[in-house]
Specification:
With about 270 residues, the chain is an alpha/beta fold. About 35% of the residues lie in helices and about 15% in strands. It is built from 8 helices and 7 strands, in the order E-H-E-E-E-H-H-H-H-H-E-H-E-H-E. Strands 1-2-3-4-5-6-7 form a 7-stranded mixed β-sheet.
């Protein structure tokens, strides 16, 4: 069985529609797929069940939090699609995204990029608005030569458009998932650039809040890092998850179903279900 439990569609910052993502996942021989758009479950309202075939779809989302001034993402797997309290939690994240976008636009205006927000909102459409939409707008207006440059200069970690303080604390977000009966997964821990001791503290606080799993594998990952994260999952008695973190075609390191193998000594998160 091939699992991919982290992917994105046009409902947030992915390039493919939910239908196109499912078709691509099937072509990649994925058996079990989770669509985990940022702070939304909107993709699941667009699912054409006629294209699923034998593919099993796991309801999911990737929720934004802050922990010790770091932006940390928590994937919720097997979350309910029809739960009033969880739906309201998602709605609150969407309101935060709109507020955050306004703050980013104000900050970038001080750099001379005025009236960004209308174009950014248009690009986001009905999906979750995020920094990639600002990057697209900056590229379109000729302020940068590539999306990568937009993040390097204005939107990446520590840059003027990196707004974290709007997000709820880690324990609150994990609690939303836990109370809804889902499985909380610490997403791509290698991307936070934490020291070993800080990563262990993050894992401990995540577990104390009710977190149950960690992404041991995220995309095409270095074998040494995979072993380190597998060791962490074993030390902390955390289930192991894996996913491509797919956003768009053409990125071989984050292609659907092509992530590095999950180490055999880990207990897979799907054993929880």
């Amino acid at each position: 069985m091939k699992y991919d439990l982290h992917s994105h569609t046009t409902a947030s910052d992915g390039e493919l529609s939910p239908r196109a993502l499912i078709i691509r996942a099937k072509a990649a021989d994925v058996d079990v797929l989770a669509i985990t758009d940022h702070d939304t479950l909107a993709a699941y309202r667009e699912i054409d069940h006629s294209v699923l075939g034998s593919l099993t779809l796991i309801p999911g989302t990737e929720l934004s939090t802050q922990w010790q001034r770091n932006n940390v993402h928590i994937v919720g797997l097997n979350v309910p699609l029809e739960c009033s309290t969880f739906t309201e939690a998602i709605a609150s994240q969407q309101r935060s995204r709109i507020e955050r976008a306004s703050i980013i636009a104000d900050k970038l205006a001080k750099k001379g990029f005025t009236d960004l927000l209308p174009g950014v909102l248009e690009k986001a459409g009905k999906g979750s608005i995020g920094r990639p939409h600002f990057a697209q707008q900056l590229l379109e207006m000729g302020a940068v030569k590539s999306l990568e440059e937009a993040f390097k200069k204005y939107l990446g970690t520590g840059k003027i458009g990196d707004v974290k303080q709007i997000w709820p604390e880690l324990d609150e977000v994990v609690g939303w998932i836990r109370d809804a009966g889902g499985t909380a997964v610490l997403a791509h821990p290698d991307k936070y650039h934490l020291t070993r001791s800080k990563l262990h503290r993050l894992a401990d606080e995540f577990i104390a809040a009710g977190g149950e799993a960690i992404e041991v594998v995220s995309g095409k990952q270095d074998k040494v890092r995979t072993r380190e994260l597998a060791k962490l999952s074993l030390e902390k008695n955390l289930l192991a998850s894996c996913g491509s973190d797919f956003h768009q075609p053409g990125k071989f390191w984050a292609e659907l179903g092509q992530q590095s193998p999950l180490p055999e000594n880990c207990t897979p998160v799907w054993d929880r279900w």
